[in-house]
Structure formats: C-alpha cells, structure tokens
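Supplementary Methods S3. Input chains for the assembly prediction are listed below.
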Amino acid sequence: MDYGIAWLLIGSLMLLGSIFAGLLSARVGAPLLLVFLAIGMLAGSEGPGGLTFDDPQLAFALGSTALAIILFDGGLRTPRATIARGLGPALALATVGVVLTAGLVAAAAHYLLGFEWVLALLLGSIVSATDAAAVFMLLGRSGIALRDRLRATLEVESGSNDPMAVFLVITFTSMLAVGELEFGWWVAADFAMQMGLGGALGAAGGFALVWLMNRLELSGGLYPILALAGALLIFSGTQLTGGSGFLAVYIAGIVFGNRRVRADQLVGRFLDGMSWLSQIVLFLLLGLLVTPSELLPDLGAALVLAFFLMLVARPLATLVCLTPFRFPLREQAFSAWVGLRGAVPIFLALFPFLEGFDSSGQAFNIAFVVVLVSLLLQGWSIPWVARRLHVALPPEPEPAMRLDLDLARRTDRMDRDLIAYEVMPHSRAADYPLAALDLPRRTRLVALIRDGVVQRLPEVTQLQAGDFVLTISPPETAATLDRFFSRRFASTAGLLSVDQGDFLVDAGTRLGDLCAAYGIELAGADPNQTVGALMRRRLGEELGRGDRLRFGQVEFIVVDQIGAEPKRVGIALEPEEEDPTLLARLRRLRLRLPARLQRLRRRPVRVSGSEKEESDAASSPGSPTL
Amino acid sequence: MTLSELISPQAVLPSLRVTSKKQVLQELARKASELTGLPERAVFEVLVERERLGTTGVGHGIAIPHGKLAALDRLYGVFARLEHSVDFDAIDEQPVDLIFLLLAPETAGADHLKALARVSRLLRDRGVCDKLRGTDSADAIYALLTESAASHAA
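Predicted structure tokens for the full assembly:
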C-alpha cells in the first residue's frame, strides 16, 4: 500500500522536475525531449536517483499508449490544407524513404560493422522513422516559420512513417524468429493487410467517434475523455485485429480534427496536455529503462550508424523522394537534417527484446545512442540550420488574441461560432473606422468592452487597441476574421528577408503592368490576369506561404495569404539558379560525386578502423578481451 | 556592374528636407530631371505609377523607388538621405530616411533587374545603412555607396 503511494510520489516529482527543467532548457535552447530523457537517466539505476526500473513489458504497453496519443493529437492538428499540400512528398518519404533509409543503414551495419543481414536489417528499420513527437514539437513550438509546403511535408511524414517503421521492425523480428531472411509474397500481403486495415479502421473509427461525440449529451468534461477513450479503442482494436494501430489512430485523428465536433476546443486542449504528458512519460521511461554502462560496448557501432544515418542514409532518401516533387536543394537538405529520431526507435527496439531475440539488449542500446546523438546534434542545431539554409521565413505577425466560446454546438442547427478577440495595436480593426472594415460575410460584432465598460455598439465609430470584442462568425471565415484583429506586420521582420524577394506587390496587380514595370517577358501568359491568379494557376490550388514561381528572369514568391488567396507577392530579381529537371540535377551531382565520394571514403576508413575492433569485440564476447 | 556606373557624386542629396512621401518623390524627380534632361513631371508620374503596384519601402527606413522611361539613354541612380524620416507606407510601416531612386530606359531589360538587385542587396546591409545615416557629406555618401557596392557585387 505504502509502496504504491511512494511510486506516485516519485512519479509526480519526476513530472514536476521535467516541467521545471523544460522551462530552464528553453533558455539554453536545449531540445526539450533530451531533457526528459536525461531526467529519466538521472533518476535511473545508475544516476543519483538509483531507481531500478526493469520492466520492458510495462514500458512497451505505456510506450504504445503514449505514441498512440501523440499520433492522435498530431492528426487532430493537421488541417486538410496541410494534407493536401504535403501528402505526395510525405507519402514518398514515409514509404520509399523509410525503406531506403532502413536498407542503407542495414548495408552499413552489415558491411562496415559485420552484423548479420537479419540483425542489420532490423537495426536499419528500428532507426528508420523520424519521430512524430519530436518533429511536431520542433516545428510547432519552436517558432521557425517554414514554407507551407515544406512544413506540411515534414509534419505529415513524421506522422505517417511510424506505422511503416513498425511494420518493418515486426517483419524482421519475425524473420529473426525463423532465423533466416525470407522475402516473399507474404511480406507484400502482410503490408497491404496492415496498412489497408489500419487505414480503413482508422477512418471508420474516426467518423464513428465524431458521430458519437455530436450525438451524446454529456457533461462538458466527459467529451475529452470520450475522445481519448475512442482513440485508444481505435488503436488497440486495430492492433488486435492485425492492422496497423498507429496508422489507424493517426488517420482517426485527422478525420476527427477536420470535422465539426462538439466541444472541439475542450478536446483540443485536453489532448494537447495529454500529448505533452505522453512525451514526458515516454522519454522518462526510456531514460529509466536504459543502463548507461551497458551502452559502452556498443557505443562505437552505434556512433557509426548514427552518423551514417544522419549524413548519408537520410540525405539520400530525401534526395530520392523530394526531387520528383521539385523541392529546391536547400529545402531537401533541411528536410534531411530534420530527420529527427525520437522515442520511436528506442520504443521499437523493445520489440526484438520482448520477443527474446535481443537478450543482450544490443539493438536497444544502439537505438538509444542513435537517438541521443540525433537529438543532441540535430535537435539543437535546427534553428541555426534553418537560417543558414535560408528556409526560415520571417515569423508570422503576432496572432490575434482569440477565444472561441464553445456553445454546446448542435451541428445541424447552429453553424456559427462565438469568438472573442482582443484588438491588437496596428491591426486593421484598430487603424480603420468601423464603417470601413469590410468584415467577412455573416459576421457580426455583438459586444464591445472598452476599459472595462460595456459600450453601446451603435455609438462606437472605431475600435481601439486593447478593446475586447465579441463576434459571431461562421467557422470557415474565422481565419479571415483573425486578420482584422492581428498586427498587420511582424514587429521583428521589417526588412524583407532574402526568401521573400526584393520588392512586394499586391497580388491583385495586373500581370501585364508588373511585367511592363520590370521588363519581364510575358512569354504567352495572359497579361490581364492578376499575379495572384497566375500563381494559383501554375502552382495549383494548395499553394502556400513561401511558394515560389519562376517567371522569366524573376521569381514570384507568396508572402502572405488570406485563406487560399495570395495577398502580397514578393519579386526576387536575381533568383538562385535552380535547374528544375531531374536529369540536369543528376548530371550535376555526377560532376560533384567524385569529390564527395572521396570525402566519404576518407571518413569511414578513419572511423571504421577503430570501430571495427570494438564491434567485433561486442559481437563475439569473451574471445579477445577475456 | 558596379554602382559607380549608375550614380555620380552630383546625384547624391546628403540631407534632404521633406515632409511627405509625395514630396520625396517630387524632389527625387527634380534631381533626376536635372541629370537626365527629361521633364520632371514624367519622372514623377512613373514613380507614382510604380508605387501603385505596391510600396517600394522595403523596411528598416529604406526605400528604393524605381521606374522605366522610354527616352532615357542609360540607367540613372539618385540617392537621398533625409534630414527627418517620413512616412512612406513601408512594409513595416516604419518611416523612411534612406532612398535610392533608380531609373532605367525602356530597353534595359535584364540590366535594370540586375541593377535593382544590386541596390537592394547593398541596402540590406545594416552596417552600410548605419554609416550612410551617420554622415551628411555628399562625398562620403558617394564613397560609401560605390565602395561597398564593390564588395556586394559578387
């Protein structure tokens, strides 16, 4: 009895410790997840905490739950537009990319380090997935603004490649059970079954959950619990029927997040909290589970694999997957570097361990070191790399202070939201008379509080910064409405950055006028269309902030948007020369390849020379050293 | 191409006193008219026409108004440092005090774009801008523009 309470005390202390350490880490810029992992290790058997936690079974169950919640929350926060923009490249990365990464790492493990093929392939698959939690957190909370398409790709990739990695790991674990490599139709059939079932059950479960949420009359606090229980049911149910539960729960999250659901604000906040808790728990657990001194024998091999993964396997995989989608090279380089490994590899390494094929915990230890190196090097340097590669856009203007009031929403009878705003200084609402504000359709101001006093609306001619207003607005125009109350420009981003070109024009500018002003050839384009219309036509409907269109000698860049419509367009007068054809790029690569190969050849020789012995020693314990 | 091909020491207005964007453009047009012999009105109208497409105030107190004129024989630049900064509808809504005007002949094509890019790159350099703000001698400004331009030409 006391014992249980003592665990609770320890657990809550570790949670509190993580939260405070997280606050501190923000100052140093250390990756948060690393901090959680470190706390777990400190509390663990060889740290000052001295806790012995050696229950991989429990760790696996808790880890699955945590991962399912993180994926559901990630799906929930992925709007349809993001999926439309990122689906193609993200799917390529999540399938071909994962297989390529796993294969290359396996080859390195086999040829450089002398692992047997099965074990090598298992290792490759374990470290092949980027971590959803880490990437969501890094992109979502770090405040780096990326081109919309790039961000969408990375986010959707990180959510959808976990199921792929899980599949590979299970496949190779079962091959390990047989003891030999045996590829056959069953792998393909199994893949189709896992993904098909996962996708179908996930979508069906998502719709069912939405229906249930909107149908049941519950007290408010129960809705988030209903959503959470539903998500976990979808995950575990799919998993037990033989589908991919991870894919199912991610898809269910996407479905759920893109439908009108009662209490969606409540659910969103609750899941945000749960997702944090899951990440903390996951990393604490893995930190507790590892025995640092046991890492030493595998350290050399793990470091070789970690650097091979970061510098060769992942960059090659992104090059192959993103080139057909015409991502500029610097964005590919950035994507390669954001291939962050997080809890997933460590968690996946528990599979073979639990199945009893990894009694020494070698795979687990290697995965742990790879993740540690990746979090340290990549996690820490991403803001810097984003700036160096010029993929960071200036930050978005400070968003409006906004509060949705969630009325018990009946989806059929009430189709408008009640939204409260605080009027920001330098916002359109504060700078223009009320009569001149062209508010979106079917939007009304219903109340205004100024200096704590409720104003009589008919007497108000202009809003002021600091006013609180209450509006009624259809949900689809909420994004447009935000712009009326937000600052009109980012206070920090005065000068146009290189990535937005030299000058700005209104997207409504006639193409003919613009071309005449700069002497740009029209090359058959209709001079009467607007620049915005040209960009939408050429780049497709899902164009986003930061997207570029080469036009004659110049490049047009989407600087900002209202909804899907570009609002201002930047003109880059001397765009970087980027030959868009794959062929030309490959030709160029071939020219550079000898130099690169030479550099590469030099590296592994040096590393593997010293590492080879260690791995040999590790794989045949007892022979040389004892 | 270096900025010394665009701008002459006579084209620098080291401490211009103006109170509005319109007045800035008028003064620049007058100076350009002196240098090129074209009517002041025509220059002014071209500049206003360009501002209609979107402001040339690129932020941090910099503006680079520009335009094309058929009768011009080559590219012309005029630089003005304002005594007091004025509102220029700049993208960051901050007042502007350093202005580079660039006029190009109708046929300039790529040269026009190249020159504009050069100017824009030069004035992105905060160090150069601080130095430009720190002096009111036309010669010093001319030297800053043309010297720094050499290092920005790459």
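The interface with chain A takes residues 49-50, 53-56, 58-60, 62, 64, 67-68, 91-94, 104, 106, 108-110, 112-114, 116-117, 120, 124 of chain B (CB under 8 Å). The mean pLDDT of chain B is 85.
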